[in-house]
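Minutes, project huddle
Topic: does the predicted pose make sense with flavin-adenine dinucleotide bound?
PN asked that the exact inputs be recorded in the minutes so nobody has to dig through chat later. Recorded below.
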Amino acid sequence: MTERLVVVGASLAGLRAVEGARKAGFTGAVTLIGDEEHLPYDRPPLSKAYLDADEKPDVTFREERHLRDELGVDLRLGTPAEAVDPADQAVLAGGGEIRYDALVIATGATARRLPGTEGIAGVHTLRTLDDAVAVRAALDSGARTVVIGSGFIGSEVASGARKRGLPVTIVEAAPTPLVRAIGEELGEAVAGLHHRAGTDLRCGVAVREITSTAGKVTGVRLADGTVLPADLVVAGIGADPATGWLAGSGLDIGNGVRCDASLAAEGATGVFAAGDVARWHNPLFDEVMRIEHWTSAAEQGAAAARNALDPANAKPYSTVPYFWSDWYGSRIQFVGVPGADEVRVVSGDPETDRFVALYRRGDRLTGVLTLNGQSVVMKYRALLARGAAWADALEFAARRAAARAGT
Ligand SMILES: Cc1cc2nc3c(=O)[nH]c(=O)nc-3n(C[C@H](O)[C@H](O)[C@H](O)COP(=O)(O)OP(=O)(O)OC[C@H]3O[C@@H](n4cnc5c(N)ncnc54)[C@H](O)[C@@H]3O)c2cc1C
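Predicted holo structure (tokens), as shared on screen:
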């Protein structure tokens, strides 16, 4: 019988696991272990509203009283889990063993750092609330900013700097921003957002070194020898699943905790994973994937807890991956999976701030990218969830275009 649920990782997926367990009627003991000192908080605003010159938004999800009294959680913050012993069903944390009948691993991902920059003031990643406080303080002081990497987070930091009128350069090794997620052609289209906002975007360029004086950053030297002066350097170069503490556990932790379709970790009983750390078989696309997006982390947290508490009736978790990102007041949204045989713009114009593009693999619709297409993107997500054929997606797009022309 399941009497003790332990959740490691006190952020989005971990919180949703705890809430999901209580919602499912679980009345046993729940322990939530997190290595950060903060209560669970929301990360997307950290690279958006949090960087604005206005009042800082409150990013905390729930008050401590709610977690402890209403959800009855034994909350252990500032407590890194050090190991798990699946045979003994115990997590080692805070110098003691915490026993579980069901365990949800929700330790997320850790931002990659620029090698050789440890201890240089002014060089940051942006993953945690503490990172955001430091980046915001630098922007508040009018920092000349260089961002390494033009992914979501790097591009959002650049957007925040430009909003304040600060000079900002993005250095990107790939030919366009977001190339792995949306492809080169439409990567070029979103690069236009940077150009139009006055960000100096340099693609296909490698960084040779970060320069510093007396332990403080002074600039970024590129492979061609150019030096970009900087008071603030933000590395947005991706993240790795936080699995170091699971070494030696017997779990398969190559690029995330490998799970089956029900989010059950392979190689252990009673262990499930959720969120950015989970690599699972998504039945909808028949692919093993690890997603670093808000919506799936939230959904997986709840699904993993439900399945962990009732493994005999565990249900597969499938989803159409979804992310959004806000650049210079425009919203980029993508639903589906990357990689395509064909990309077709069905509405708007990639040279402007509004378009919809469909991605095809074989005869199936596999992805949709919208720029400022909030009214339509979830309709396409529903089509993807039904496994829509390419021809049906084109017909849907044509019907929408006709309806718009008639209005
Ligand atoms: C700045 C930023 C902006 C983002 N913007 C967007 C967006 O616009 N749209 C979108 O879809 N997604 C966005 N994301 C992604 C989204 O926030 C993540 O997908 C989501 O936070 C993942 O939740 P998680 O709970 O799986 O992992 P995390 O939020 O990473 O939380 C994992 C927690 O576990 C803790 N932990 C790690 N190891 C241990 C250990 N050994 N013991 C105890 N605790 C541990 C970590 O410190 C952390 O608190 C953004 C992410 C960031 C960082």
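Observations noted during the meeting:
- The pocket of flavin-adenine dinucleotide is lined by residues 8-14, 33-36, 43-44, 46-47, 80-81, 106-109, 126-127, 152-153, 242, 245, 275-276, 292-295, 297, 323-325 (CB under 6 Å).
- The domain at 113-235 is CATH 3.50.50.60 (FAD/NAD(P)-binding domain).
No decisions taken; revisit at the next huddle.
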